[in-house]
Structures are given as structure tokens and as C-alpha cells.
TrEMBL record:
It comes from the Bacteria. This is Tetratricopeptide repeat protein. The keyword Nucleotide-binding does not apply. The keyword Translocase does not apply. InterPro entries: TPR-like_helical_dom_sf. Keywords: Membrane, Transmembrane, Transmembrane helix. It comes from Vreelandella halophila. The chain crosses the membrane at residues 21-43, 49-70, 91-112, 118-139, 160-180, 192-218.
Amino acid sequence: MSSIARDSGRVPPVWERLPQIFGYPFKTACLTTLGLAAILYLIGMVVPLLGLILVIAAWVVLYKFAYDVLEATARGWMDPPEIQRKSNSWVLVKTFVLFVVLGFAVTGIAIVTGSLTLVAAAAIFIVLALPAAIITLAMSNSLMSALNPGTWVGIMRSVGFPYFIASLLLFMLSVSQGMAESLVAGLFGPSLAGHVGVFLIGGYFLIASFHLMGYLVYQHHDMLGVEQEVTAADRARAANPDLSPLLQEVEGLVAEGSVDEAIERLQKELRQSGLQPEEHERYRKLLRLQGRTDELLAHSREYISTLLYGLEQPKKAMSIAEEALRVDASFQPEHPKQVRDLARLADQYDHHELVIRLTSPFGKQNPKHPHLPENYFLGAKALFEGRGDEQKALRILRQLQKHFPDHELRERVDELAERAERIATS
């Protein structure tokens, strides 16, 4: 997810999860189940007496797992289930009955009305309602509930437009499955390899489709009243095992939408024992996200000191100062010494604008500070070398020559003043 989506606790919609949906059947538990079902199917194709039973068993294994995938995903598990869930071996029979009843319903409308328009409308409605029926069967394990049109309409109304997008995606998956199966059948013909290949393709698309439906339920679980077994915090921790315990806790709070609480947790740790660099960065990112500018600037003042004298990360310290000045042009570090040290670093790395913005207000704020001559010299140097403003640089240098004639930088001041004057008068 993009960082903004993650930080706001937003659950990405189904259509943003297509790569994960297509990759889901390749996870270990899925491949294991698909492989076991394929073996049963293969044996069933070659064993004369028990063949049909084994083929049916293969489909039972596959459908039972698919329903477990749907139900587990709907309850917050983004990895396939590795243990048996609530579905039972009768799920294939219930699914078969569901399809038969829906088919008879369309046939009955055709016989009773004889209207092609009504038949087409009924067929379209049933195709659209089929995901809702399957979802109901997976979540309730009740065939009667799955056959209730009121339940279908309730799900469609609760989910809204995303339901129809998901239905379109399921239809596209079905078309893709048909094309892939036709390709395999064309390549291998009615051979054993062809039959097993078609079975594997069907299994892949079945698992992907049921995961998609489960994710749709998960995305709208509040509206559908589906209890979650995995919290957003649990998922955040599982997705970031390399993070510090504090950051895992913070990511969990963010995933639940409790961004301000996550900030407070980081603030508490900052006051008590300090933060690690990655924790500082997360804290700053959350402050930006929430628009808490004053706290971001306050942290910048503290963090610059840590970066300069604790972590010894001078470039990072300059970056923090530059960001703070973009937020507030009047920003100044916590202590006058930091102005001098940052200005030295900025001069060393040719960050001329940073030097100018740090040193320009220093004289008014600290008129008698011992670092004033050096800061003004660095500012004049930045004006001359960075902006090419030799006139202004020369005025500052003349003031330094006048008021600090015996300063240790006098030789460098005179040299720079001579260069600036030469260019100014040329």
C-alpha cells in the first residue's frame, strides 16, 4: 500500500489488490492443497474402480479449501488457512445444489413467462447475485441462507458499488480460466496430462476467486457484521517483523486508524528513553500526516542536536534543518552553537542557501555571541559563492573587518573581501 493509505488506516479496495490476489494461490498452503487434490484426481483418472470416488474427493478437497480461504480472508487472515476451518465435506454438495436451484429458477421463469427479456434479466441478476450467495454459504454454512434473495440484495446494498466491481473481476477471472483451460486442452488433448492440467488451472482460479470474495467481505466487514479474528495491529506486526517492538506497536495503531494515539506512544518513548533513528523518522512522518507543524518543528530542534552530537549524522541534520526552514522561514536550532556547527557543515557541502538562512538572523538574536563573526563570515561566503551577490557579501565583510579586526578569521575575511571587491569593481 502507499504510505498514505497505510497511515490513514485505509483498507485498499479489491481492485488495488489484484497482484496479491493472483499471487495468493502460489502460497505454500494453497500449493500443498492443490497438489494433494491433483494427486487424487490423477489417481482417479487411472484407477478403474475407485476412479470416480477419487475424482469427487479431489473436488471436495479443493472446494472445501476454497471455502475456508473465503471465510478466513473475510475474517482478516491474509495468508491461506493451514488448519481446517468451519466448512465441511458437504460444501461441494451444497454448492452443487445452489447452482442447480439457481439454474432451475431461470428455467422456471422461461417456462412460466416465455419472455426472453425476463429470462435475460433473471440470468443477469443471478450472475450478479452469485458471489453474494457463495459468500453467504461460506460465512454461514447454510444452504437456505445462501438461497435467500433477500440476503443477496442485503449484501449488494451494504457493499455498494465495489460489489459490482468485484463481480466484474470475478467474471474476468472466469473468462481467463476458460481461455487457459482451452489452451491446455488444445496443447495436450484428451490425454492424462491435459485432464490434470485443466484441473490445476481450475483449482488456481477457484482459490483466487474465493480469496477475492473473502477480501471483499473483509474490506466491508463492519457493514456486513463479520467479526474479525485478526486485528489491523496484528497484521501490521506480521507484515513488519524486522521493525522494533515500539514501531510494530505504532504500525498496529496506525493500521487501526489511531494515528494520534501512535504519535502519543512515540512521544512518550521519546521523553522517557529516546528513539532510534527509524523511530524518529516514523514520528516525523506521522506528524506531517496529521499536520502537526508546531510539534514537527519542536522535534526538529531536538533531533538536530541528536544528529549532530549523538548519532553523528551531519547530512541528516542539514536535511532536517532545511525541511524545518521550508515549513517555517523563521526556524532556528535549539542552541546558538548548533547554528555555527550547521553553517560549517552546510558550507562544507556547498548548501549555500542553508548557510544564508541560518546565519542571517543570528546577529539580531545573539548580538554579542562569540560565534557571530564566524557565522557572518560563512553567510558572506555563501552570498558570494552561492548567490553571486558580491556587493552584499562585501558589505558584511567590511563590517567584520571594522568590528573584529583581531579575530582569528581576519586573514580569510580579508582574502574573501579582496575577491569580492575585485569582482564588484570589474
